[in-house]
Design goal:
With 250 residues, the chain is mainly alpha-helical. The protein has two domains: 90 residues, no CATH class; 91 residues, no CATH class. It is 62% helix and 0% strand. The radius of gyration is 22 Å and the shape is elongated. 25% of the residues are buried. InterPro entries: MTERF, MTERF_sf. Keywords: Transcription, Transcription regulation, Transcription termination, Transit peptide. Pfam families: mTERF. One of its GO terms (biological process) is DNA-templated transcription termination. Belongs to the mTERF family.
Length: 250
Amino acid sequence: MNEKDIAKLVQTGARAFNASEGRIKSVISLLQKLGYEGEALSDLLARQPSLIVMSEEKVMESFKQVEDIGLKKGSKLFAIGLRSILAMGTENLGRKQQFLSSLGFSEKQISELLRKRTLILELSEEKIKRNLDFLVKTAGLPLTDLVKYPGLFAYSLEKRMIPRYRVLEALKSMQVQMLKRLCFPIIVTLTEKRFLEEYINSNAESSSVLHDIYNGGKDGKLIIVKETSSESVSMKMIHESCGSSSAASI
């Protein structure tokens, strides 16, 4: 292992140092047989020190489940997927897949979700469902958009998505000429600074009202009802602009 990875292992994997040298050699030999060598092996042990104290059967089972998701061994995504599997326990993977199925995702969509954002396995079922309910029932996004933007499941509903959605609705109700850039999934992923610059501070005439809406002031408590035909056109344009985005892996 290189010095940087050894330092990381010391910080995060103290239990690994209780293992005998023979045990460590045995694990390294197994990981090499599973396709990990050199820098990739060094990085894997630093990120997943628990592998050192696992049984050979458990290690192989975990690797197989990550491969079954469709992630390539040796890739960074594989290491992330392995971390998620180890964090939740291999026995819980099937349950999480069944849960996603109960929310309406097809088997193919679930596979794509897990390939793009394996960390979704570490999110609680409650958080996944709350975010999905808001994104589908309130923001009006189809499940296909959630598959394109799986990172949406991880964001805070109260601190990020709801405030930004209020601003989005306000901009549409004000008929601000920005519809081609009002793609909600992408808006959610923007940094705080960029979001304020592009969607609040750039509208000089209404920036104070938009700030109030964003921060949950009296203007932010207004309920915007989607009833007019022009609103339907706006939502259509928004979804079309989202579909053309290349940021599908967020």
